[in-house]
Amino acid sequence: MDASGIMTASTGEQIEIAAGDQQAVVVEVGGGLRSYSAGGRELVDGYGAYEMSSSGRGQALIPWPNRLQDGSYEFNGRHHQLPLNEPEHRNAIHGLVRWAAWTASEREPHRAVMEHVLYPQPGYPFSLALSMEYALSHSGLRVRTTATNIGTDPCPYGSGAHPYLTLGTATVDRLMLRVPGRTVLRSDERGLPIGTEAVQDTEYDFRQPRRIGSTKLDHAFTDLERDEDARSEGQSRHDASTRRHLIFPRDLLKLCHDIGQDRHLPARWLAPASPPVCGKATIG
Predict the structure, then answer these.
(1) How far apart are CA 271 and CA 197, in angstroms?
(2) How far is the C-alpha of 178 from the C-alpha of 133, rounded, in Å?
(3) Which terminus of the chain has fewer Cβ atoms in its 10 Å neighbourhood, N or C?
(4) Within this chain, do residues 127 and 191 fall inside the same structural domain, yes or no?
């Protein structure tokens, strides 16, 4: 509650954008996507203005997606140690900006640009100027992430996003899913990647649409099939009139759901770690 007695949203300022029958809300805390709907139907499983983002939903995962084992890594011959924010598995997970305050630097009715400067800190002594552009158009919602190294040295960098797609069904078992990945990544009990496997002749081959059924997904897919614009597209479908598309320009897609628990289809795409950033990197 602020000085005037008005309750403050848990995620700070709420930036609303709209185009036609589409509406989206971007938030100050983490610069993430809180909600997105079209035609009165929710397209992401978001959260309320007075709630914290749970399970990373809608958040930007910068400067690394996924997990760093024991929170430690080496870069340019130096060892770095990050705080363990997944203590039960002794990992550092999903970057450093999910709970930081971002600023709306540009606003239009259909578009907003969120910005944040990540300053050097223990475990990540590098500087990044970050930008997230959210834009609605007739083809849907496009999110473009830009990172610029404003420090003096190269820095390690990766980026990912965490949209939880929903088709509004009670469970995901009967949903049709298409994933254009030829290879699936295997993880251990700590969520750390331990190897890859071709999806052909496995339960993870969704290159042709089929029902999810009893397959439990918490896997990253790579070696993606692409269109003429070098983009890949994943799809989830309930019936002929209800379809969700996730289009991404990079080389790694992660899907996760908990059958009978989450009761939705959270679809998360995670961009891979990019080469060390000496200048500017854009994903979108």
Answers:
(1) 19
(2) 27
(3) N
(4) no
Which of 163, 198, 217 is where one domain is finished?
Answer: 163
Structural domain contains residue 201: yes
Q: Is the pLDDT of residue 276 over 60?
A: no
**Average pLDDT taken over every residue of the chain:** 83
Residue-wise pLDDT for 37-80, tens only, equals 999 999 999 999 999 999 899 999 999 999 999 999 999 999 99
Give the Cβ contact number of residue 256 at 10 Å.
Answer: 17
Whether residue 4 lies inside any domain: the answer is no
Residue 129, domain member (yes or no) = yes
Tell me how far apart the alpha carbons of residues 192 and 185 are, in angstroms, rounded to a whole number: 10
Tell me, yes or no, whether 44 lies in a domain: yes
Give residue for tokens 């029958």: 21
Give tens-digit pLDDT for 156-166.
999 988 888 88
Provide DSSP, 107-133. EETTEEEEEEEE--BTTB---EEEEEE
User: Two tokens at 126?
Assistant: 């590098």
